[in-house]
Design a protein that fits this description.
Blueprint (H helix, E strand, L loop, with lengths): L1 E7 L5 H12 L3 E3 H10 L4 H8 L6 H13 L4 E5 L5 H9 L6 E6 L2 H7 L2 E2 L6 E2 L23 H24 L3 E6 L1 H4 L2
Length: 191
């Protein structure tokens, strides 16, 4: 039975990559966001709904329980993304009986990741993207002249944080005998 966690750094459409992995593994794919949205709509969702409405962070322990409840029901295996991205979450998932037997890290070069991240105007909230919707002047919104909110330093910081978490995860999973595979973005592979 394939139980896979898919992780990636910033700039990658993680849900699409995870669905690509799930399709090839022949198992269903679950994202943390989808699981949480479904949970808050159910009869037990009030505590989580309250936290979200108050813009508070949902504790990892609570999220692990919600995720595990769904994954345990999948007897044929699963692919999960959006959770177990840091060691604490991976440990909680294991405690709930849902340790993966495989981890797939989908990687992009730092340059590609930086190029893919969209920038949003700090004033009018219009989205700009270096590939799909480039402003005429770098870092400045064409519509209102406002600045764009993702300067290169912030992108570099996000990439650096991801690298630290990914290295810790690699160590954690390898020590537990979990297969750890690194692949390029599937959309780069298939084009």
């Amino acid at each position: 039975m394939r139980k896979v966690v898919v992780i990636s750094g910033p700039g990658l459409a993680l849900g699409e990559a995870a669905r690509w992995v799930a399709e090839r593994a022949g198992v269903p794919c679950f994202g943390l966001g989808d699981l949480m949205r479904k949970y808050v709509q159910g009869p037990m969702g009030e505590p989580v709904r309250r936290l979200v409405n108050e813009h508070q962070r949902v504790p990892d322990e609570l999220m692990a329980g919600i995720v595990a409840e769904r994954l345990v029901a999948e007897e044929g295996g699963w692919v999960l993304y959006g959770f177990a991205c840091i060691v604490v979450q991976a440990e909680l998932l294991a405690r709930h009986g849902c340790e993966p037997n495989s981890v797939v890290e989908v990687v992009l070069s730092e340059h590609e990741a930086s190029e893919r991240l969209k920038r949003t105007c700090t004033q009018c909230r219009t989205s700009w993207h270096v590939y799909y919707r480039l402003p005429r002047v770098a870092g400045v919104c064409d519509l209102c002249g406002g600045g764009l909110d993702l300067p290169d330093e912030v992108i570099a910081e996000r990439i650096g944080q991801y690298k630290q978490h990914a290295e810790s995860l690699r160590t954690y999973f390898r020590e537990r005998g979990v297969s750890f595979e690194t692949i390029s973005d599937p959309y780069i592979i298939e084009t």
